[in-house]
Every structure is written in C-alpha cells, then in structure tokens.
Write a structure and sequence with these properties.
With 492 residues, the chain is α+β, with helices and mostly antiparallel strands. It is built from ten helices and 19 strands. Strands 1, 2, 3, 4, 5, 6, 7, 10, 14, 15, 17, 18 and 19 form a 13-stranded mixed beta sheet that branches. Strands 8-9 form a two-stranded antiparallel sheet. A hairpin with a 2-residue loop joins strand 8 and strand 9.
Length: 492
C-alpha cells in the first residue's frame, strides 16, 4: 500500500513600520511539538480540548478586530470630511487646521490598522490551532488509544489505493575527481567511515528593506521578512533511516568486492587497536545538526539526522588547509578558499569540526597496508536559492521542492599513504516522483498589504513515504557504483 504525508510549503510575510505601534502577536502554535512522542492518551485529549478553546477565542478576537478596523476606517472618513469642510480651522488658524487634520487621520489609521492586524493574527492563530488539532488526532489513532478519535477524521476513499509506480531509471551520475592520479594502483581498501545525512526540514529566509519616505517627522523604513520551508520530520522515522543506512553500507562493501578490490573484513578492521583509536575521535549517531544560523546562506537552515552503521564512527570535515575528509577547498582565490558547509553547526561538539582525522588514521593505513575510504551521502528535500539584487532594497528566493542526493556533500574520500583523493557528485542527483507539489497564491492575511496586491505563496506538497525509502537508496546505489568505478579505474 502506498503511504504518503502532506505538508505545506509556506512563504509567509510580516512587516513593521516606525510610524505605527503594532499589537503584540501571540506565541505561535507549532503543529508538531518536541514532547509529542511521550504524550499519553488522556494528555492528547486534554490538548485537543485546549485547541478547541483557542479556536473559539480566536474567532471572537477576529470578530472584534474586524469591528475595530471598520470603526477606524469610518473615523478616517470623518476626519477627511472635517478637514475638507474646515472644521479643524476652528482650533486656531492654519496651525490648528493642520494639526487637527493630521492627528485625526493618523489616529484613525492606527485604529483601523491595529484592528486589521488583530483580525489577521486571530485568523492565523485559528489555523494553527486547527492544524495542531488534526495532528493530535493522527497521534491519538497511531498510539492505539482506542474508542473514537478525539476529532473527526476524513472517511477513507472507497477506491483502492493506486499501486506504487515502478522505480525511476537513473542516468549516469556526473562526478568531479580531485587528485585522481593518486588512485592508480589502489588494490586494497578499508571502509573507515560511512555516513548518510537525512534532511528532515529545510528553511530559507530573505529580508527585504524598503524606504517608504518621510511623514514629516521621521523617515519610514519597512522590513519584510519572508521564510520558506518544509518539514517532513514526522514522516521520516529514525528506525527506517538506520535500516536504510545499514543496507547501503553492506551494498557498498559488496560493490567494492564485486569490482575485484581486496576489502579489509569489517570484523578485523573494527577489532584493530589502530582503528579503535581512530574511531574514538568521531561522533556517535544518530546525530542531529540543526543549522538554524545558515538560514540566509542561500541554502537555508537545514535540520539533518546523521546515521552510521553500528561500530562505525561519524567522521565529517576533519583536517586542515586544503586537505580534509570533506573536500571544501575551491582553489579559486586566497579570499574565498573554502566552500561553507551549510548543513553543520557542530553545536556541543566542536571536535567533529576541528579534529584532524587524517592524522589519526595513518596507523590504520600502515597496519593494514590499505587505502581508507570515507563515504557521505547527503539527502536534502529541496534546493533553496537566494539571490540578492544589485540594489540593497530587494532580495528574492527560488524554491525547487524535490528529493535529491546533494552535490559535493555526496562524496567518497580516499586516503592513500597519507595523501587524499576526492570523488564527489558534480551536480545534484535528482530522485523524481518522491515529492509532488503545486503553487498557490492568496491575498496577504494583513488587509492593508492585501489591498496593495501583496500575496502569499503556498506550496501544497505530498511526500510519498514508501517511494522515498525505495528510490533514495536505489539512487545512492547508482552513485556508489560510479564511485567504485572511478576508484577501480584510477580516477577516470
């Protein structure tokens, strides 16, 4: 049976202006929360009832805000009429006329805008509560709490689910090889590290600055922050990540053996004191890296889960200068010598970024008279690109949803007697059909911004979970065969 999960890609806008005082927005309600996995059935029901109360309160606040906005608009009209008929002149000549006109219009505008903003915030909070309520209903059923679900669920379709389509036919991956000449003559290899990096969520952010002029007292600058993202964390279970990683590791070992290379047996390698000393420098998996600080990097904030097979350490970056496990040197100029790894933070464990793993594995290479291999597979959910205009007043984001194996960070590093060669994907290796999406536009929830034609984009999307776990490993196998072929053929 084909299973899938649906989420929304969101392009949401918020703006603030120095000329007005905005109402304090309520704390957002996250659809999925960190402690959901530990909720009991009664606790789930209590949270559902709490969401019902939030919906009722939001509906009342929305009605109140709309009334306030209408009153402010009416006051603005009254102020305009008073200005045109000269009523404000009675306040004391031209100065009184100007002061009364400006003050009344400004006050009316603030009232109208505050009401509209409050209504929009209430509408958004109602949507958040409804989304949280629906998630709790799914959680209630998945835990087997029994009885009727706490909230109504849509009835299943009468027709049988469509059969999963056949797997895609992948093209030959395009590779980049650095120092390929060092691979000539390699006959014996040991897989020292093997990592699969699954992306759970991916978010980008762009900020637009616009000078709106002056109100006669101060200049008015508007900042619009837009965030774009997707989160499939509740669809990509950790146990399936681990199972896929273990299978891919074994498949890679089999490909190496099938190519005719002499592979150091895993048991013998892991029992060696030299390898154990090397492995102690690495990190344990699963390891979560939440690269929130990279939100404006062009690739966006990425929350990743790193997986390795049992007994194999997490080894990433590791090295200094032009050499490291992850080859990030560009050689372009002295001012930009490295590519930034936008998927890592190393929060809480700087050693993963600073440890020179190349130094620690020299004894492994010497003891087994072998080349050491380090494999990393990077599986993002989308490509997010941020372009900055020639003028500082605008930026824009381009989003391409879809599962792929990411270029450069899907790689094989080969150590030969202290020297290193690097084989990595030149271009993203796309896995078609796993994510499907459409683009929808709707008026901005802020009525004032909607009035000038501003819209928000949403990307209703579906992740086909069964297809993901079938096609992503198959794509990785295709790439592995290319890696092994390059190794066997001396870097060609």
């Amino acid at each position: 049976m084909q299973t899938h999960r649906s989420f929304r890609w969101l392009l949401a806008g918020s703006a603030w202006c120095a000329a007005a005082v905005w109402a304090q927005a309520p704390t957002p309600i996250d659809k999925i929360q960190l402690n959901d996995g530990g909720l009991t059935c009664p606790q789930i029901q209590e949270q559902v009832q709490a969401m019902d109360r939030v919906v009722a309160e939001a509906q009342a606040a929305q009605s109140s805000g709309q009334t306030q906005a209408t009153a402010g608009q009416a006051a603005g009209v009254a102020a305009e009429v008073a200005s045109r008929t000269g009523i404000f002149g009675a306040l004391g000549g031209l100065g009184g006329h100007l002061f009364g006109s400006v003050a009344s219009k400004t006050a009316a505008g603030v009232v109208a805008e505050k009401g509209a903003t409050g209504a929009a915030q209430a509408q958004e909070r109602q949507k958040q509560a409804q989304a949280r309520k629906e998630h709790l209903a799914q959680l209630f059923l998945s835990k087997g709490c029994g009885g009727a679900a706490p909230v109504p669920m849509p009835a299943p379709e009468a027709s049988a689910p469509a059969a999963m389509p056949p797997p895609p036919v992948f093209d030959t991956p395009q590779l980049t090889v650095i120092h390929g000449d060092r691979l000539k003559g390699v006959q014996r290899v040991a897989v020292a590290s093997f990592t699969v990096q699954f992306v759970e969520s991916q978010v980008g952010e762009v900020v637009q600055r616009a000078n709106l002029g002056s109100n006669g007292v101060t200049s008015i600058t508007e900042y619009t922050s837009r965030a774009v993202g997707v989160d499939f964390s509740d669809a990509l279970q950790r146990d399936r990540m681990q199972a896929a990683t273990n299978t891919l590791y074994q498949d890679f070992l089999n490909d190496l053996k099938a190519s005719g290379l002499d592979v150091v047996p895993t048991e013998k390698l892991h029992a060696a004191a030299s390898y154990q000393a090397f492995a102690r420098q690495g990190g344990a998996t699963p390891r979560v890296e939440d690269a929130e600080a990279q939100k404006s990097s062009g690739q966006g904030a990425i929350r990743s889960v790193f997986m390795a097979p049992p007994g194999v350490p997490l080894v990433i970056k590791g090295g200094s200068g032009a050499q490291s496990i992850d080859y990030l040197n560009t050689g372009s100029s002295m001012f930009s010598p490295t590519v930034r790894d936008h998927t890592l933070t190393f929060t809480g464990n700087l050693s993963l970024g600073a440890t020179n793993f190349l130094f620690y594995e020299k004894d492994v290479q010497k003891e087994f008279d072998t080349a050491t291999l380090h494999v990393r597979v990077f599986v993002p959910l989308a490509v997010i690109e941020v372009d900055h205009g020639t003028m500082v007043n605008w930026t824009k984001a381009k989003i391409t949803p879809g599962v792929l194996l990411g270029n450069r960070f899907t790689r094989m590093t080969v150590g030969v007697q202290g020297d290193y060669s690097y084989v990595f994907l030149k271009d993203d290796f796309k896995v078609p059909g796993v994510i499907e999406y459409t683009v929808q536009e709707s008026p901005h929830p802020n009525p004032v911004r909607a009035l000038v034609g501003e819209k928000v984009k949403t990307y209703p999307s579906t992740l086909y979970v069964d297809r993901y776990w079938r096609d992503v490993p198959e794509a990785a196998r295709v790439v592995f065969k290319s890696f092994v072929g390059s190794l066997k053929n001396g870097g060609t």
